[in-house]
Structure formats: structure tokens, C-alpha cells
Q: What sequence folds into this?
């Protein structure tokens, strides 16, 4: 997710959310329902039919995340999900990851160079140094 432009393949957010479901041969009714659920969860309804080229970086990042969630994974593995985002969008995305974990029961594993941003939402923290586990602990309270 470091660069959401590299993750998006459709010109419209609605189609981007449906893309993975189409590849899984999900029925049209189930697909429409799932896209509506995901769009509502992320508050995307107002820009669901815009051209992705007109979306902000934060909206593109959210769309890439929502597209992955449309396929109902049990685990999200994210590499630097808040990179290239301004502080407001980064906090918004971190909070969305928290909601995904708490409300949808999906495990979220994210690598980051900004642990201070993710710490308030984390249930576990691992720190690596030179390819070795340096620390494994719950986040600071």
C-alpha cells in the first residue's frame, strides 16, 4: 500500500471494490451487497462513482484497503500503509485499521517506520533491528 496508484486497476471506486469479487465469481447480487457494505463501513458513498484520478491520496489509500476487505480476508498484511499520507489522512487510516480489527474481527499486521502513529491502536508490538527480533511487547499504555 505504499503507493496506492500502483494498487488500483479500475477507473471508478465502485468497480475497484467489485474487481476482486468478480475474480472470485461472486454473484451479482452478493457483489452489489458486499460493495455497498464496504462503501458504507468506510464512508465512501459520496465518491463511489468518481474517477479514481480525481481522488486524494488518502481516498486512494482507503480505496485500496477497502478493495482488499471486499474479499473478506481473515488477515490483512500491510507494508507502510500510512506512507505518502498527510498526518490527518494517516491518523484516519490508522483508525480505520483499528475499526477493521475490532468491528470486523480481521487480524491486521502492519509494518511501519512511524510506530508512534500505530501504537495507540496496536494490541501487540514487534520491533526488528538488522533482521532480528529486538522487542515483542504489548504497546505502551
A:
Amino acid at each position: 500500500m505504499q503507493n496506492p496508484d500502483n494498487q488500483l486497476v479500475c477507473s471508478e471506486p465502485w468497480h475497484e471494490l467489485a474487481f476482486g469479487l468478480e475474480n472470485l465469481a461472486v454473484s451479482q447480487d452478493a457483489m452489489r451487497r458486499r460493495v455497498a457494505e464496504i462503501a458504507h463501513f468506510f464512508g465512501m458513498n459520496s465518491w463511489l462513482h468518481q474517477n479514481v484520478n480525481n481522488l486524494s491520496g488518502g481516498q486512494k489509500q482507503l480505496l485500496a484497503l477497502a478493495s482488499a476487505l471486499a474479499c473478506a480476508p481473515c488477515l490483512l498484511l500491510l507494508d507502510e500503509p500510512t506512507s505518502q499520507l498527510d498526518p490527518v489522512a494517516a491518523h484516519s487510516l490508522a483508525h480505520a485499521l483499528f475499526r477493521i480489527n475490532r468491528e470486523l474481527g480481521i487480524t491486521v499486521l502492519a509494518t511501519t517506520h512511524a510506530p508512534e502513529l500505530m501504537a495507540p491502536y496496536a494490541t501487540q508490538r514487534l520491533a526488528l533491528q538488522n533482521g532480528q527480533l529486538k522487542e515483542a511487547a504489548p504497546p505502551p499504555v
Helices lie at 13-23, 28-42, 57-70, 87-104, 115-118. The chain has five helices and four strands. Strands lie at 75-79, 107-111, 125-129, 132-137.
